[in-house]
Amino acid sequence: MGTRDTVRPNPATVAPGEDVEVPKNRLPDASMAAETAYRLVHDEAMLDGNARLNLATFVGTWMDDHANRLYVESADKNMIDKDEYPQTAEIENRCVSMLADLWNAPDPARAIGTSTIGSSEACMLGGLALKRRWQHARREAGLSTDKPNLILSSAVQVCWEKFCNYFEVEPRYVPVSDDHRLLDGHDLASYVDENTIGVVAIMGVTYTGSYEPVQEIAAALDVIAHDTGHDVPIHVDGASGAMVAPFCRPDLVWDFGIERVASINTSGHKYGLVYPGVGWIVWRDLEALPEDLIFRVSYLGGDMPTFALNFSRPGAQVLMQYYLFLRLGFDGYREVQQTSLDVAAYLSEAIGQMDAFELWSDGTDIPVFAWRLRDGHTTNWTLYDLSDRLRMKGWLVPAYPLPDDLTDVVVQRIVVRNGFSRDLASALLDDLRAEVAYLDKLDGPIPHAAETTPFHH
């Protein structure tokens, strides 16, 4: 047994004659056998639990064996070294063109984009492009560039708060409310001014899974442009929905078919179905991405434009994304995403029928939905208590308050991902009903030693 500050492997797994007890927080003095080191790390990681039962995360937790082989074979490729790995760079460009076509860019061959380490970096790049375009226009008009602002829903993912902080842009949050649960263009004119660099529309709000109506936001901006001359572009944060809507809601207008949409990002490692971490961003055309943000490297006698915050990141995920594009095609992605939507609908319908709950969203946009505790059902327990009870069974189903102006509303949320089957969903419902029945039998409130820490997205 190791002490508090050391760790010792199981004696049955160490090499003969090897006596290993190593410190946890500093380098060991001596080497150990590879199998021993592997076993130590493997056993520690087991404590994280079963990723397939994590219904809090959007990030992919399953890929097939062929993808796993590609992962191992290409784990040594650095995506940024495009001159050293030109074929991986070429495959990255193919993926960008495929996404530009999927998202109805006017001329997919002229659209420009890049892979990223995830949607957060993609959002940073999209925000930077909006800011730089605004700066160029202001300078050409002889105007100040001191006070850029970006308009966001208060339900926006925290990466946009980081963008505004890191790159000195004022965030202007439009609060969600019971009447306007999404950024829908309502009262947008009171937020837009000459310093607005753009509006972010979310295809799949993290809190609830709902799509913000990009077409309605664009229509409100059209009116503002006509009335004030402030011509404001839209960035669509499609971290999840940009890889669901094209397949399962083909009639929904949200992408480059709307002229105001300048850029779209998505997470390859969410509903792109790849392991973490890979994201994508595409601009509608070359004019949407200012040239002075692009760095150029030469390879194979040609020219390769790059736009990234990182200078080392894996190329394996890009190859796995291309593998999935080839393997599944449009019809395959539609089948996978629709299966997840069907499981979400099955779960949300069953949970919505339970006396204890009231649905906040139903999982018909992306396969994500949330519910609240029905008013008057109980004062003995909360959704935080239910989350704790489910965790005892291995399920991670978070509870958290909604954003500003709705912080008194606590919801619980489920994310259905590829690999979460209807059978697993049925097992979850059995456990959920059992835990609700247990909690409803309490004859007094559950004591809480400390205030519950909200779930962080």
Automatic annotation (TrEMBL):
InterPro entries, per database record? Glutamate_decarboxylase, PyrdxlP-dep_de-COase, PyrdxlP-dep_Trfase, PyrdxlP-dep_Trfase_major
Family of the protein in this entry: Belongs to the group II decarboxylase family.
According to the UniProt record, where is the region Disordered? Answer: 1-25
The UniProt record lists the EC number as: 4.1.1.15
Identification of the protein by name: Glutamate decarboxylase
GO MF assignments: aromatic-L-amino-acid decarboxylase activity; glutamate decarboxylase activity; pyridoxal phosphate binding
UniProt-listed Gene3D superfamilies:
3.90.1150.160, 4.10.280.50, Type I PLP-dependent aspartate aminotransferase-like (Major domain)
Per the record, residues carrying N6-(pyridoxal phosphate)lysine are 270
What chemistry does it catalyse, as a reaction equation? L-glutamate + H(+) = 4-aminobutanoate + CO2
Q: Which organism was this protein described from?
A: Gordonia malaquae NBRC 108250
- What keywords are assigned to this protein? Decarboxylase, Lyase, Pyridoxal phosphate
Q: Which residues cross the membrane?
A: none
